[in-house]
Design a protein that fits this description.
The chain has one domain. It has 8 helices and 3 strands.
């Protein structure tokens, strides 16, 4: 019974309905009002988490576009754990398949880079090797230093790893990438 109640509550948070919710203490607020509060907080928390993980993606598309994209993503991929750090692994693929992002073909690669960077920060002895036909490091650095995208020398072979407490990003050769991949 408890498991069923928890599942129903979770589904109601994801998709609030106008149906009466008789399992909530209704006090000063209706059950639907309480669910709407939970729903809003759930989405705000996950949008903020995605915005932190994918800060370059957010800057490239703008806050309003990013927030709408994040809301769509949350509907399609609700959180499966209570650990917000684990959330968003599918965002790269979601971006690649999203019709609103088709005019930004590099965006999925930027998202992949940012996710790997964050994973490297939180995990020990982890390294990632990424290939992109776009200059991902330049685009990522744009997030901090510039407003002009430069697609010269477009291909990127990247190694992301942790050294002590610091995450290191290196551009590597195609040969190094093929040897490690």
């Amino acid at each position: 019974m408890l498991k069923q109640l928890q599942r129903q509550f979770y589904q109601d948070i994801l998709n609030p309905s106008n149906e009466a919710t008789n399992y909530l203490n209704q006090g000063n607020f209706s059950g639907n009002d309480l669910l709407q509060i939970y729903h809003n907080q759930y989405f705000v928390s996950l949008i903020e988490a995605l915005g932190k993980t994918y800060s370059c993606v957010k800057r490239l598309v703008g806050e309003d576009f990013f927030n709408r994209l994040a809301q769509e993503f949350i509907q399609a991929y609700p959180s499966k754990t209570g650990n917000i750090i684990d959330y968003g692994a599918e965002f790269e693929d979601f971006i690649r398949c999203n019709t609103h992002c088709q005019n930004l073909p590099y965006l999925g690669d930027v998202a992949k880079f940012e996710y790997c960077y964050e994973r490297c920060y939180f995990l020990l002895d982890t390294q990632f090797f990424i290939y992109s036909p776009y200059p991902i490091i330049k685009i990522w650095q744009l997030n901090e230093h510039s407003d002009i995208l430069d697609f010269s020398n477009a291909e990127s072979y990247i190694k992301i790893y942790k050294q002590g407490a610091e995450v290191i990003v290196e551009e590597i050769s195609e040969q190094e990438y093929k040897e490690k991949k």
